[in-house]
Amino acid sequence: MYEKIQETAAFIRGRLKSSPKTAIILGSGLGNLASYIDTTAEIPYSEIPNMPISTVEGHAGKLLFGTLAGVDILAMDGRFHYYEGYSMKEVTFPIRVMYELGIKNLIVSNAAGGMNPDFSVGDIMVITDHINSFPENPLRGKNFPTGPRFPSMHEAYDRQFISIVDEAAKRLGIAIQHGVYVGTAGPCFETPAEYRMFRFWGADAVGMSTVPEVIIAVHCGIRVLGFSIITDLGGYDNVVEVSHEEVQQAANAAQPRMTAIIKEFLKTLP
Ligand code: HPA
Question: Full-prediction pTM beyond 0.90?
Answer without folding.
Answer: yes
